[in-house]
Structures are given as C-alpha cells and as structure tokens.
Automatic annotation (TrEMBL):
Pathway: Carbohydrate degradation; glycolysis; D-glyceraldehyde 3-phosphate and glycerone phosphate from D-glucose: step 2/4. This is Glucose-6-phosphate isomerase. GO terms for cellular component: cytoplasm. The lineage of its organism: Bacteria, Pseudomonadati, Pseudomonadota, Gammaproteobacteria, Enterobacterales. It is found in: Cytoplasm. It comes from Izhakiella australiensis. Belongs to the archaeal-type GPI family. It comes from the Bacteria. GO terms for molecular function: glucose-6-phosphate isomerase activity; iron ion binding.
Length: 213
C-alpha cells in the first residue's frame, strides 16, 4: 500500500509564505481588473504604481482529492484603489456545500461573506482569529490594515472555486471602503443584482444532482 506521506509545513510569518508547499501562485493588480468600484483609480494605480503582486498563495494539495484537505497561506499586500481596500477575487466553492477555515496569522483584515440569496456578513480577522466559512457562502478576503495581512486556510480538496458567481451578479453586494478616520465601512455596491430563486435552488440541489469534479 502506498499511503500518502504525512508532512509538515513551516509558516514563515515575515514572508507570509509556507515552506514545503506543493503550489504557489501570485495575483497582480491587473488580474483584478473590474473588481473595484473606482475604475479610473484602478487604471491610474496600474500606470503609476505598476502591475505589482497584490496577493499570493502558497498551498499544499494532496495527490488525490476526494475526502482530503488542501491547506496553505494567503499573503495580501496593504493598499486601496480609490477608497476601497485591497481584496481577493472571491468565490463560492464549485461544490457549494464545502466549508473553509481561515486562521489569522498577521495583520488586520476581514472576510466578506454573501449567501446565494444575498445576505451579507463580515467577520473581522486578526492574528489568532479563526474564521469559519460555512457551506454555500461566497467569500472574499479584504486587507483593512496598513501592513500585510496573512492567513492560514484549509478546505476540502474536492471543493474547487467558482469565480463567475460574483461576476454574474455585478460584484459582491457590499464593498469595504475607508471610513475617513482610519477605519473601514461597508458600502452598498450599486451594480449588484440579486440571483434568481432558480439560481439559488440550483446551488442547493447540486449535491443531489452529483457534481463532476
Ligand atoms: O481564490 P481567490 O478568491 O483569489 O482567493 C485566494 C485564495 O484565498 C484563500 O487562500 C483561499 O483558501 C483559497 O482557496 C483562495 O484561492
Ligand atoms: Fe474558498
């Protein structure tokens, strides 16, 4: 029998990376085109500040997916586009009933959550905060601090990510903006469109319909 080998991964808090990872990817500002409210500020930042890396993920993925776990580290740079804090693309799990755990390591930020039928929640995350993202919630991380924001995450290996759900509704329902006194506030996204009852039902039915991974 060839068992999957146990491993350990060292979290490098300073670099915001996990050593001994099996995968690593970086997202640059240009990868986030269309996500921010202030498109002029986005374009100005791209041309003046350059197309810099805004977040990166080091992760460990098991050789087989079913029933196993993926874990890793996300490092987000601090910054704003206009008044809006730096964010990740955000997604719902492709197998929508799969949950996720985040564990704050460094910096300050929050998890912006949205249910399929448009309820919204915010979970603030600092070092040592564990954030539970329940099944079916769309989730996006936001760095609301002035330093890097680093979180460990873990989720079922068969979960996958669906990024289109956010694009199809004109973005997430809320945006996280500077409040003018050094903090953050949530603001409605005027472009947001509710998902139809049929779309919501489809997500809930997915499990019984049997999703091909
Ligand atoms: O995938 P994004 O929405 O860009 O977020 C970046 C990453 O953030 C966390 O690390 C999640 O656990 C990953 O699943 C996700 O891929
Ligand atoms: Fe996720």
């Amino acid at each position: 029998m060839k068992w999957v080998e146990p491993i350990s991964c060292q979290v490098d808090l300073q670099q915001g990376l996990m050593h001994n990872a099996s995968g690593h990817y970086q997202k640059r500002l240009s990868d986030l085109a269309g996500l921010y409210a202030d498109d002029a500020a986005f374009k100005a930042e791209l041309s003046h500040g350059g197309d810099r890396v805004v977040y990166e993920v080091t992760e460990w993925r098991p050789p087989a997916r079913s029933g196993d776990m993926i874990f890793g580290l996300t490092r987000m740079s601090p910054g704003k586009i206009g008044e809006e804090f730096y964010l990740t693309r955000g997604h719902i799990h492709a197998v929508a009933d799969r949950p996720e755990i985040y564990y704050g390591q460094r910096g300050e930020g929050l998890m912006l959550l949205e249910s399929p039928d448009g309820e919204t929640r915010i979970v603030e995350i600092n070092a040592q905060t564990v954030c539970y993202v329940p099944p079916y919630w769309i989730h996006r991380s936001v760095n609301t601090g002035s330093d890097e924001f680093v979180m460990l995450f873990s989720y079922p290996a068969d979960a996958g990510q669906d990024y289109d759900i956010i694009a199809h509704s004109g973005g997430m329902r809320r945006r996280i903006m500077a409040d003018g006194t050094g903090g953050w506030k949530q603001v409605d996204n005027a472009a947001w469109q509710a998902r139809s009852a049929q779309t919501v039902a489809k997500l809930l039915d997915q499990q019984s319909a049997g999703v091909t991974l």
